[in-house]
Amino acid sequence: MRIDLHTHSTASDGTDTPAELVRKAAAAGLDAVALTDHDTTRGHAEALSALPAGLTLVTGAELSCRLDGISMHMLAYLFDPAEPAFLAERELVRDDRVPRAQGMIARLNELGVPITWEQVARIAGDGSVGRPHIASALVELGVVPTVNDAFTPQWLADGGRAHMPKHETDPFEALRLVRNAGGVAVFAHPAASKRGRTVPESAIAELAVAGLDGIEVDHMDHDPDTRARLRGLAKELGLLTTGSSDYHGSRKTCVLGEFLTDPEVYGEITRRATGAFPVPGAGGA
Ligand SMILES: [Zn+2]
Ligand SMILES: [Zn+2]
User: Fold this and answer.
1) Residues at Cβ < 5 Å from ligand 1 ion
2) How far is the CA of 168 from the centre of ligand 1 (A)?
3) Intervals of the chain under pLDDT 70
4) For position 284, what pLDDT does the model report?
């Protein structure tokens, strides 16, 4: 089984619609794919309606969290999307995205960059607006050569000249919300140091005690040494380890299925979840 548990569609900052994404996932030979847009489940209905035979959809979301001033992402799988407390928190985070993007645009204007809200809104389309959309606008304007070049202290990296923090959930609160909604929580790319400061191992240990299910180990932002270290840490803490592409369509370089999750781990995630269940494509496995 080929299982990719972390992807983004146009419901957040990916470039494929949810329907395109599941078709590409099937074409890439995946058996199961998780749609984990930032702070929203908005893409799930379209992905489900377009789900090809033979592909199973794992519903999920990637939550924006902050611990001691450090931004971190938490993947939540197979939770009940209608559970009110968790739904309210996702809406709070998402509603903060527009004023935050507008704030970053204002800072860029102060820095002499002629970026406009109209331009960023056009790039974001129906998606939850975020930094990658602003980064794409900076590429369009010729300010930086690639989206990745915008994620530097000079521009949009955490603490960068044009960066503005957003509302982010305390990860211990996120764990409580995810579990109350019947979901399973996996700390996304916990050691992706290129994105900014990462939380210490001691914090991962505390999260494990608080109910974290696993950590994402095989991810493009982790080098082989980091993966080995994280695997050891997970073993020590009794955490599951996942692998996934963090696919964003053409906005990032990773491809669907570039990293995969072990079928046994996938089985354990689906066994623990009580809020929702993986959905096989019509006529599929
Ligand atoms: Zn992430
Ligand atoms: Zn992601």
Assistant:
1) 73, 188
2) 13
3) 283-285
4) 41
Counting ligands in written order, the one closest to the CA of 192 is 1
- Segment 110-116 long-range contacts (CB within 8 Å, at least 24 positions apart): 111/161, 111/162, 113/138, 113/141, 113/143, 113/162, 114/141, 115/141
Structure tokens at 42: 């908005």
- Check: CB of residue 258 under 8 Å from CB of residue 246: no
- Cα–Cα dist 4/52, whole Å: 16
Tell me, in angstroms, the distance from the centre of ligand 1 to residue 73's CA: 5
Ligand nearest to the CA of residue 4, numbered in listed order: 2
> From CA 215, how far away is CA 25, in angstroms rounded?
23
| Beta strand extents in 105-200 (DSSP E only) | 184-187
**What ligand has the least distance to the C-alpha of 12?**
2
CA 70 – CA 50 distance, rounded (Å): 37
Pairwise CA distance, residues 261 & 264, whole Å: 8
Give the rounded distance of the alpha carbon of 110 from its chain centre.
30
pLDDT tens digits for 51-106?
A: 999 999 999 999 999 999 898 999 999 999 999 999 999 999 888 889 999 999 99
- Token couple for 272: 């623990």
The SS3 of residue 120 is helix
CA angle 159, 163, 167 (to 5 degrees): 95
Measured in angstroms, how far is the CA atom of residue 36 from the centroid of ligand 2?
A: 7
Ligand closest in space to the Cα of 247: 2
Q: What CA–CA distance (Å, rounded) separates 34 from 260?
A: 11
**85: its two tokens:** 């407390």
Residue 159: CB partners within 8 Å, gap ≥ 6? 153, 196
